[in-house]
What we know:
Blueprint: H1 3-32, H2 49-54, H3 56-59, E1 63-76, E2 79-85, E3 89-95, H4 101-107, E4 115-124, E5 130-141, H5 157-162, H6 164-170, H7 172-194, E6 198-199, E7 205-206, E8 218-221, E9 226-230, H8 235-243, E10 248-256, E11 268-277, H9 281-300, E12 304-307, E13 310-313, E14 319-322, H10 323-331, H11 341-350, H12 361-373, E15 381-384, E16 396-397, E17 400-404, E18 406-411, E19 414-421, H13 426-441, H14 452-460, E20 465-471, H15 472-480
Parallel strand pairs: 3-5, 6-10, 14-15
Antiparallel strand pairs: 1-2, 1-4, 2-3, 4-5, 7-9, 8-9, 10-11, 11-20, 12-13, 15-18, 16-17, 18-19, 19-20
Helix pairs in contact: 6-7, 7-9, 7-15, 8-14, 10-12, 11-12, 13-14
Amino acid sequence: MNNSNLDTNVEQNSVDSELLKIRRAKLEDLKQTGQDPFLITKFGTNKQISEIKNNFEELLEQEVKIAGRIVSWRDMGKVSFIDLQGDDKIQLYFKLENLPPEQHENFTKWDIGDIIGVCGNVFKTRRGEISVRATSCELLAKSLLPLPEKFHGLKDTDLRYRQRYLDLIMDSEVKNTFIIRSKVIKAIREFLDSKGFLEVETPILQNVAGGAAARPFVTHHNALNMEMFLRIALELYLKRLIVGGIDKVYELGRVFRNEGISIRHNPEFTELELYEAYKDYEGIMQLTEEMLKFVAKKVLGTTKIKYGEVDLDLSRPFERITMVDAVKKYSGVDFDDIKDLQAARKAADEHNISYKAEHLKGDILNLFFEEFAEKHLISPTFVIDYPVEISPLAKRKPTNPDYTERFELFIVGREYANAFSELNDPVDQRQRFVRQLQLRQAGDMEANLPDEDFVTALEYGMPPTGGLGVGIDRLVMLLTNSESIRDVLFFPTMKPLDK
């Protein structure tokens, strides 16, 4: 931090400290007169602000009781105009002579940021603004710290995420983003419930962190004296339920991955996973496309959305391309012509692709895809048929066992969904877990941990099944045109200021 910023912060802290003293003095005055707002336990509102604005004609000149936070104040002598913020914002008209005498004195103890309850009549000003003419008022909570200055608001992005409560007070668009998030989750539930899926809950604390390639958070269970993990995926327990005869199942839940933080990644995030017996990845592709179109239409009222500078229309059929064809299209390298690991390494060397000693041909194909193809997938595109080396839980393609019946959905160069025809062969599954264990022993701490109980479940028999995982936070980012995952999480993971 440079000296000018330091000086500004010191000056601002000094101003805040002085304002804090003034506001505390006002609070003490209220307490001395028996008007401590923090002793009030309720205020009987009969209307939300949005109700008044949406039903103005019906409520004209009717008495309403509303409550909210003072966000602006224009004092014009005996008359004051106050903007009150609740689920929406409305103007209050205060004329001291209209208030009970005992409220006159208390009125002068109010500040911007205070939370008040107001009784009054609905009317419209000469300028046409819907307002409430206050006839009585009550201070319900005192704001001891001043809100950020109105016209500058919270410009410090880091502060916005750390003090989300201030961000929500100062910016209605921020609140709207989270309202949309809630509606997205509700719409997903509505869609899946209508298809006969059963919503369930599975353990967050697990003995084996499986179902994805990710490093887990480790904890210790004192009573059992054993190491446990926060789940990195929902997959393996949900597929146990498929084995148990619940043919359509889904879960919306938090998962945890001990990885880096970026505009796309938060260590704690929300995922949808669903599984349907007797479906393959083709059926899940159709379901995914139908669901995303339903959610966009339900939440936004349209399937036409804008993300950054890109205009998208989700009503159009989603494109499909194999991983091999995508790599060929954008790098010129045809992996159908690459017959072995030696040839794959040679192609990687020629195209400056870094790989590890333990990487096989399929791993190198995926490295090519990430380097050359992913960023070009702007329109909704299903990338299908992933190599078996990077798909330890997916069923092999009967016509080409080097690849699996797996797809990922890409939009604006980002992955939004991962799905496959689920591997239900316990012998093959155990062999792939062995391969994952070898990768871990070679230093890849994101490789899948073997889960013997899951293999045992498969040995009892799991029907052909299609599965899907969707990152809810990224989907909300897409539908709200948000650049960072932190913009769609109320409280993103942040490093403490004193660290």
